Every structure is written in C-alpha cells, then in structure tokens.
Predict the 3D structure of the following.
Amino acid sequence: GAVVSQHPSRVICKSGTSVKIECRSLDFQATTMFWYRQFPKQSLMLMATSNEGSKATYEQGVEKDKFLINHASLTLSTLTVTSAHPEDSSFYICSARSPRANYGYTFGSGTRLTVV
Amino acid sequence: GQNIDQPTEMTATEGAIVQINCTYQTSGFNGLFWYQQHAGEAPTFLSYNVLDGLEEKGRFSSFLSRSKGYSYLLLKELQMKDSASYLCAVRDSGYGGSQGNLIFGKGTKLSVKP
C-alpha cells in the first residue's frame, strides 16, 4: 500500500516552453505532498510543500511563479515548470505523507527533465 | 541552520561490513531516516530511528544518538547490488510552517567491489 505514481518519468522540452509533472497517490489520500529537485551528485533539495486545497509553501530561493504547484485533490499534485531554461534540467521527485508508508513518507519514481 | 554531513564516497568488498556515518545539526528533530538511491531512481526506504539505540532489519542496521546528533547505517554481508547512494535524512519538528518535511544529506556513494 501507499503507492505514489509520478509521470512522466522522462521529458525533453525546448527552452521557453512549460512542462507539467504529475504526482498521484494511488491507494491513499495525500493531504500533503513534497516536491524535491536533485542535481547530479547532489542531495534532494526541498522545493515546496503542497497541501490539498491551499497554496503551496515554497522554500527560500524557489521562484513561485516559475514552479507552479497545484494540489487540487487528495490524490493529485502537479508541478509545472514554466518558461523552462536549460538550468532547470534536473531530476524532480515528489513525496507524499502517508501514515501507512514507512512512518509517513512514500516517493514517486522521479522525472528526469532535460531542457534543450 | 540545518546541516547534515555524511561521507561523499566509500568503497567496500563483497561480503564485508560497512558503516556509513551521519551527523546532523537541525533546528528540530522528529526522526532520522536512511534511504537507498540508485542513479536516476527515487529513494527507497531503509530504516527509521526516533529513539536512541540500534534498529536491526535483516542485513541493515541503523543507530541513533540524539545527544550526539549522530547516526550510522551498518550494512552486513555486502552484495554487489548494494552499490548505490545512501541518504541520511532528518525530519524536523513538524510544527509551524515546516510541516515535518525531510532534510537530506548529500548522500554517500557506496561502491562494492568483488
């Protein structure tokens, strides 16, 4: 139980376009989800925390207008990278809180974004 | 500030035992996690400690000392498939705006050699 599905797993987009990444909790309701970014050989850096039905809380240094997070339902959170640039190329991972999953957290499989 | 330190890389031999250390300095503490991550994949849960002491789970064990801000992950009977990055993560207090999110160390890349 407590599975999080993240889609797409890989995406290549052109500079200036927008990309949407979806994170779905398949068998539980996720009131809180976390979005992380990981650069090569670096740690997971928390970008923002999203709560169902309310605005996301962004970490310092993360542009709210560039990384749009929507958590409109208890099973779906989306991250939209707007006006993507090559420096946005990274591995994005979502995580959901679930009391059934490993003391509260389960991760999606990640999305490799490449901006060309 | 928040700081989690762990060695960048370690090498060990198949069948051996390896200990990966983690020290942390965080504003709050509500548990410490160890995750395994293969390149290009999401982290997978290995262990969780919230009280001092040793937690054993098959070939993996994790130790915590809250007073010292220290943890280690012990891997026994190493296998080639254990070659991966191991991430130490601390959950903050969970109060206020932080909501109990995880703070990750940079990870320790373990290479297991024949």
